[in-house]
Amino acid sequence: MAELTIDGKKVVSRPGETILQVAKRYGIKIPNLCHHDEVKPYTACRLCLVEIKKGKRTKIVTSCDYPAEEGLEVKTSNEKIEKSRKMLMELYLSRCPNLPVIQKMAEEMGVKEPRFEKENEDCILCGLCVRVCSEVVGRHALGYESRGPERRVVPPFDEPNPLCISCGACTYVCPVDVIPIEEKDGYRIMERWHKKSKLVACEKCGKYFATEEEIEWLKEMGLPEDKAKLCMDCR
Amino acid sequence: MAVEKVKENVKEVLERYGYNSARMIEILQDLQDIYSYLPKEVLEEVANTLELPLARVYHIATFFRAFSLLPRGKHVVQVCTGTACHVKGAYRVLERLSDVLGIPAGKTTKDLQFTLETVNCVGACALGPLVIVDDKYYGHMTPSKVDSLIEEYRE
Ligand code: SF4
Ligand code: FES
Ligand code: FES
User: Fold this and answer.
1) What pTM was computed for the model?
2) Nearest ligand to the C-alpha of residue A177?
3) pLDDT per position as a tens digit, A120-151
4) Same domain, B146 and B100
């Protein structure tokens, strides 16, 4: 537990919390695109910059990985921060001009037409899907390919990956909502990863509730055989 | 690709580096020396043996330009596009090579004879523009010298 201030407001942090997490809990908004409470910080988007004052010294840090320490004075905005956030938004908007989430964020920050050449990418490379798959689900089905302008997120070889269980955790965390998941004719389909998984019906109520791979995974994780045949409601 | 042979090659290389995944770059380099590129089966075998996610191995293999995941030509033609060579006209040489071989940089000819690539400064700036074919250096290249250079290697 530590006491600090954010934008002049006194806040109390819980053990292990970052500045961004405390701020969120207190309803103080800090823009961010690559943070999720379930995975480790990655500091890819650089939007969560804040100014911190420790004693006499001030500096600008990423709030998603900076621990909420005792006595910090945090400012979530100042001229310099706004300037770099706007610049970043302009870059995001030129990379992904057609993403509603990005359009909206840019608008809120007063960023209009980007000065840079427009591309039509739909992934901002925040890495959340990669991280949730490895850190939370434990499957490591996704990763990066290449670097620089060619860098993208794919399953290895951009082919259907047997490690992917079509659980949809990536869909859930993607901040720009570009990992569609669909259930059709007894299959769950994750088009972005070229993955099609057969659905299994609950032995009791007959509703589709999981993919075959998910059930295998649950069993490996120690769920007893008989329970693995039932949906959450019937378990 | 013969599965047994892949297993054998991978095992031999991994042994050389004590099955230490921190030496992945050297491991992949040695494997590429054997195959002239990194076949999918090889990357899978490396990941399996070292118990690493394939996604990680794939990332490393695609991260460095020195690695190729596609078969490469019998001869690898590299054009240095480092600053010095660039200033001395490397791009005109590259363009001519592209025309003569009929492929853009990064690709391999259909008959698997040539792969055309660009590299960054190789430390021979005084010789720029520099072209390297296999392991041989050709300095002070000009577009007009390209045709005869390729003829030397063409079968
Ligand atoms: S697909 Fe979505 S979650 Fe994955 S890196 Fe791209 S933007 Fe982030
Ligand atoms: S949320 Fe901190 S850098 Fe993206
Ligand atoms: S720039 Fe080509 S060798 Fe240095």
Assistant:
1) 0.84
2) 1
3) 999 999 999 999 999 999 999 999 999 988 99
4) yes
